[in-house]
Specification:
two-stranded antiparallel sheet, 246 residues, 3 helices
Amino acid sequence: MSDQFTQLKREVLLLRACVLSATLCLVIVALTAFRRPSAPTRFDEIDVQRINIREPDGKLRMVLSDKAQSTGPIAYGKPFGRRGGTRAGIIFFNDEETEDGGLVFDGKTENGKYAAGAQLSFDRYNHDQVMTLAYNDRNGDRNVGLVMGERSGPGLDTRAPQLDSLDMMADGPAKDSALRATFGPINGVPQFAPRVFVGRRDNGNAALVLMDRKGRPRLRLLVDSLGSARIEFLNDSSRVVRSFTP
């Protein structure tokens, strides 16, 4: 009888311990559920070669990288054309995981001559860039300005497979011919034509240039490197046909 009582006492104590443990677990879960989200992790300094910004579903929205780890072009989540590793900066992607602009930059001196550049660009939907803020300097031949243009021709859904095929071709006349056929004018109209330029030309002129749908300058407002101002009208052969000075 004494042994049975002792066994029963042990079972009651064990049951109490289980109930207490379950109660503590419920309290912890409840407190955790209503606790404020933890603060974002903060860093004083971080060294990386590439950071990918993604949506919760995994779609790429932005890549910040050095040159070596930079991404190549991507359309609808799939790489195409040239490989990565060519441009340091930030590349933007739209909701369909297609590249739609970016900020890239470079600059170095070789053999006593320097080359430098920076470009912020935005792409037309399903196409390449149509607005560019750029700085290009080739050892003193410097252009700085904003270019807005028109882009036509096939969209990236058609262009991406073409570029994959071109990328696999060996360099030579056949590839050059294929490139001209792919990117050349359609019915005499270039697939990309700048329409507006505002900036500083490599000849030192500050200029506002308006161009036609073939990219030919038709109206220029200039202040040259000596401070002289004029307005020029040009024909479709880019020849000045009328000019006004103060």
